[in-house]
């Protein structure tokens, strides 16, 4: 049998459990060509599924990799029980350290199964970064946590949809710390990882990568900053010498128009919101977050825990569905 895709449930008090249950109950995973296993909490998932189907039933199973099956409208959802939190006592949007520990356990278990070749890919539900900190993990997000777990120094956060894909040089850090975190090698390695991933996973023989400037008007010849001439242009030159189709530094305000028009395959962005604002403007509903440069395949929803919606059953599950489909496409054929 083909190895499964593992879905991690995310924050038990966020929308993760309900978007997983919703996607299952609406049948969105029926065309996925691999088994799906949810790493999470059966009681929480059952409570979430009841938002859509009051008759759904949680059953114990002692056979197979799934310790629980959730049955709703004839669909069987395999669950690996990694926590048994008191569902009735948890309040939407208020994770405690036990929830933080559980979120971490889902992620590390799934990552280890992928590293061992027992799963083909992992897809992550949204976590709360404060809660994982309360549970003793100082990684600012999945991206950094998985890089550490896989013993990789440099990975790239890419978010994308059909119209736009953005790769970030820096991720979760204060805006005031961005300039100091940028250097030629970081930018060059981001370009190289993006280039390799597009060739391998997205059937792009020579990806066209647009590299953004940091400052307005690409620094206006040094008047508004010199990162462009000092750091970014040398990184682009080095990439081009390696045969990579990288261009820039482009003015960030104008470039997205051309990228969305189809002139580029991906945009290399200097910091989080430079890339994620245009991306989420276009692709909030169906965007996918992918970590490039890991030895495993990891995709994710492009949104957070959405505490304002948790427990209402109103959260959109399209990003999750796209993340699962993308993981299935990226998964190694031999596994
Ligand atoms: N993949 C991840 O684990 C991930 C991604 C982004 C943010 N986060 C975390 O989530 C928490 C909240 O972050 P935030 O408030 O910046 O972003 P958010 O995405 O949780 O919420 C922003 C807005 O989008 C809405 N929204 C989010 N998901 C939705 C969905 N599926 N359907 C409909 N509307 C949806 C919310 O209701 C809210 O109005 C933070 O702790 C953050 O670190 C986690
Ligand atoms: N920057 C991501 C976003 O806004 O969607 C998000 O915080 C997720 O990060 P991780 O995949 O590292 O958890």
From TrEMBL:
Enzyme Commission code = 1.1.1.262
Taxonomy, superkingdom: Bacteria
Stretches of the chain forming a coiled coil according to its record: none
Which GO biological process categories is it annotated with?
pyridoxal phosphate biosynthetic process; pyridoxine biosynthetic process
**Pathway where this protein functions:** Cofactor biosynthesis; pyridoxine 5'-phosphate biosynthesis; pyridoxine 5'-phosphate from D-erythrose 4-phosphate: step 4/5
Reactions performed catalytically: 4-(phosphooxy)-L-threonine + NAD(+) = 3-amino-2-oxopropyl phosphate + CO2 + NADH
Textual note on the cofactor: Binds 1 divalent metal cation per subunit.
HAMAP family named among the record's database cross-references: PdxA
- Write down what this protein is called: 4-hydroxythreonine-4-phosphate dehydrogenase
């Amino acid at each position: 049998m083909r190895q499964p895709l593992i879905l991690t449930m995310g924050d038990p008090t966020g929308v993760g459990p309900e978007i997983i249950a919703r996607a299952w109950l609406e049948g969105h995973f029926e065309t996925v060509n691999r088994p799906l296993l949810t790493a999470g909490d059966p009681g929480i998932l059952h409570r979430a599924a009841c938002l859509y189907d009051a008759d759904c039933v949680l059953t114990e199973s002692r056979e197979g990799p799934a310790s629980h099956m959730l049955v709703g409208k004839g669909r069987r959802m395999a669950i690996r029980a990694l926590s048994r939190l008191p569902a009735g006592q948890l309040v939407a949007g208020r994770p405690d350290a036990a929830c933080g520990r559980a979120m971490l356990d889902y992620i590390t278990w799934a990552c280890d199964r992928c590293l061992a070749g027992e799963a083909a890919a992992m897809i992550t539900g949204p976590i709360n970064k404060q809660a994982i900190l309360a549970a003793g993990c100082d990684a600012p997000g999945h991206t950094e946590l998985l890089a550490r777990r896989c013993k990789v120094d440099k990975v790239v956060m890419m978010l994308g949809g059909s119209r736009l894909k953005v790769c970030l040089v820096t991720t979760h850090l204060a805006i005031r710390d961005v300039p100091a975190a940028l250097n030629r090698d970081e930018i060059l390695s981001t370009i190289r990882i993006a280039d390799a991933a597009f060739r391998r996973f997205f059937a792009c023989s020579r990806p066209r990568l647009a590299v953004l400037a940091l400052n307005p008007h690409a620094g206006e010849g040094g008047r508004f900053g010199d990162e462009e001439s000092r750091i970014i242009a040398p990184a682009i030159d080095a990439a081009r010498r390696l045969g990579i189709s990288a261009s820039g530094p482009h003015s960030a305000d104008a470039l997205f128009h051309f990228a969305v028009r189809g002139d580029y395959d991906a945009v290399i962005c200097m910091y989080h919101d430079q890339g994620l604002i245009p991306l989420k403007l276009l692709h909030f509903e169906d965007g996918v977050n992918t970590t490039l440069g890991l030895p495993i395949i990891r995709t994710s929803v492009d949104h957070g825990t959405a505490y304002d919606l948790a427990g209402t059953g109103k959260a959109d599950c399209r990003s999750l569905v796209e993340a699962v489909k993308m993981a299935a496409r990226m998964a190694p054929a031999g596994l």
